[in-house]
Protein 1
Amino acid sequence: MFKRSGKATRLLWEAAADRPARFLPPERRRGWVLYRWETQFGEVVLAHTVRGEMGMTFPSHALLRELAEDAVALAVVEPDYSPPHGPSLEAIDADGPDKYYGTTWRRLERVLGMPAPYWHSSLRDPELMMAWRPGATTLEVPAVVVPDPGPLLRLAAQEPDGSHAGVAALDTARRAVWSETKSCHDEITEHVDTSEELASIAIAARPLLPPEPPTVAEEVLRDGWRTILNRTDTLAADCARLGQVLGAARYFPGSCKVTVDTASCAQAGQWASRLQAGPRTALATELGGDGDQDILIDPITDMPAVRTSDGSIKTMAPQRLPAHSPLAALTIGRGHNSVWVTTQDGTVFPAPQIGGGYTWGYSGGGPMALARLIELLLKDITHTAPGYDGQQPPTGLRHATEEGWKGRTPPFTLTRAELEALRDA
């Protein structure tokens, strides 16, 4: 029997009931599903956040008053784990300390007289959660993917058999579902099933594990996404946003947003002068060009562009250059990420880009990426921009981007011969 003394106590850590609690109907609040019990100590609430509505939240007296004003204690299921106790539980008492405290599923069971339900964050379907009752069998539940890949599935369903656009949309959706489900399965297996307190945890649901998606040729996925991103309908625009978030951006012709100051160097102005009025494609909406702004397009790279109120231009850096002539020069313009490539036929391009921006004058990822870019473009002007492959650039180029150009004032241009000399130094 739990007895309160004059000092502050922690109910869900110290108490032990001598009779089972009465399970009360669950409640749905915005961002939460609440399980409630009438215990011999008063009402105790176990709270799960709902995926996509609420992030990681620790209990507080304010939260207790908001969710369950009459409760004596509130426990929140956190998204991490506390080996060997299983999923983390943080609690606060109505008349206890101001700060929350950790507890365990076994100690919670001592208060409730029964195991409490656990829903992995990827399986929290509020309707299913509201239907749970003590003693319920464990459900097999499809993982919740955020954001919802539904638009990708609708696009795939509308495409004819063999459509590369349909294949690309379906592959992105399937891989998002597979990744989320596999992660959920592995976390439950590793952290819940092996917990020393498993008998005190009512695992409410396990993921419905789909087959791993088959491998699709990269050229098919690139062609499919190119088709989707060139469309002007709202469904394609929704799919473009989803593709960025769900890992398909590596198949886009351009995925990195850059802002061009046309006064940063002559090459930036030369590039801007060739822009033409363009359609409001799905890729253009990624620039925020879905309002009243006029959409432009680079007729050589097919990358969209939007003029901003301050006179600069937002565009997408291509992942690779559609060039037919070798590298002639590289220009470093004024401002962040202002790197320009000129080919021997006189065409100017924004530097191709996949990951973080290109910088110089210090030791870090930006200068290293710039050195790696130069190395790749000297070999092949159409080479894909450097990603996070861990490859080291030649020492001479890396020294130039980190140390050698520190005293130079942009804009400045290096010829192919100068770049090759740095590479070979």
Protein 2
Amino acid sequence: MSAPTPAGPAEQGHGLQPSVFGRPSPALIARADRGYARFLATTVPAVPSEGGQGDAARQR
């Protein structure tokens, strides 16, 4: 005869700690959040300067 299968998750005792493998760290989430905010930020297009040169010299 075997023991009955538990209906719910096992209680957290003094045994092994639950694995955090696959969970991103808070620092990684903060870095990704800053990068996404930079991606979504609106940028102002640069104003072309009047340097007296033609278009051919500017495209080099």
Protein 3
Amino acid sequence: MAAGYAELLRTRHAARLLAGTLVGRLPNATAAIAIVLFVRAGGGSYSLAGALAAAYGFANAVGQPLLGRAVDLYGQPRVQLPAAVASALGMAWLALAGTGSAAAAYGAVIVSGFFSPPLEGGLRALWPSVLGGREERVHAAYALDAVAQEVMYTVGPLIVTVCVALWSPAGALLVINALGVLGALSVVLSEPSRTWRSEPREAHWLGALRSRGLVALLGAFFFVGCALGSITVAGIAYSDGHGGQAVYGWMMAALGLGALAGGVVYGARQWGGAPERRLRVLVALLALGYLPLLLTPGPVAMTALTALAGVFLAPTIACAFIVVDRHAPAGTVTEAFSWLVTFFGVGAAVGTAVAGPFVELGGTAAGFGVACAAGAAALVVLMTTQRILAAPGRTRTVTGSSAASPEGAGEIVGEGAVRGPAGGPAERLVGN
């Protein structure tokens, strides 16, 4: 699969779009960590830190699908770059004004969260045109995307902690968000982003949410986000008693590293069968991985357990991308992926908000207990919606500008057979 990833990255525009999207999403990916460290450095409580991170998450949850729908309607450059600038200005406001005024602090994180650009959904909308509409390559790109995210989640916490150590928590906020604007700029100036147009869509006020299968998936990923959000706060509480910010940085990096390793192994083979069924297995394994965190051993062992807890995260995300693509109504691809980000973000916000009081009342183990409960709830949602998720059944055409798609856009017929440029069915790669 490493050779396959290399082939994908050699495709014109692919490496630039992937790198630009990852850098552009860095502020959003590290927002909870950066906000919590900023608040704690100023003497704020865990509850305030969790509440501000939750406010960012809720604002992001509202903004992502709205901005995603705007991208589907008006194109990427007219939405992504202005949103990135507005989001960075909001976080700069927090860094410079501090938390002395609660209203100003909440206003800053709400502005920043709401305008965080939907780069993640935008990239997945671009893959078909960049890769010639070949489904097996698009699915491989989804797996590469999930693995690359874990690189970001591994490096991101380290960048934040290094900036805090060399400068200050406020400096970390400024640096991370400046990088985010540069990443968004790189994406929107690329030819595929400038020429991409969404396929025709049915006018409906619910947009992508008129798909019952998509709604079921979103419900499960709300709880996956809740689990990860609670680990953010519980991890800080653990590090406060076991070595401070450095331990926390290594724990969060280990979580991303474990997910990275899991994603690489998962992407090393082709998977048969329905991705919806495979997703249930992956979420069950993800939930089991959170249980050892309740032991809260010493820093070295805890870092190892945190890595173990992340192993099934990237495979779960990669599989979910395909499920979204199978259930999203035509013409709503950016919005559908943005809804996934939204529900994940709302879950993370709820997780951070709930874990704070649990840590203060029951200690660090209670905070990790929130993650365990949320993982179990995600599995319950998938188990109770099996019939809904078992019937994607949509027909769509993979669209993209011919200028950005030298190999020609393919057409997906029925549930997934792909007609490539030569007209023959391409090999179906499910879950990879």
Protein 4
Amino acid sequence: MENRLLILLSEEGAEAEHVAELTTYLREELLDLDVEDVSAVPGEEVPAGARAVDVTQIGSLLVTLGTSATALNQVVTVIRSWLGRCQDTRPSLRLTLDNDTLEISEATDEQITEAFDIFVQKHSTVGAQP
């Protein structure tokens, strides 16, 4: 069974284009890792003529971790680094793996590091061969 990490990126009051740009940058960095795939989560089809955009769908990525025991740690390290480079804004993140969700919003760098470390430790067997 493949383990998948769902990443939801959002920013209060942000334009859809800005969230899409941030998501694209994060996806490009994650694709350089030892993971099976990083894909955008397809949103619901917008009815013809509708102008509403679901920003949560724009900022959604699904990372297929594969069999590497270190994949989750690599992904979290990249996310932490990427988040640290978001100088002008501080997007909120929600990571979901195996019905466990970690939400990061308006946290200090130290709080983010601690939360990510706990999340990785909790799922340290993800992707490990039995």
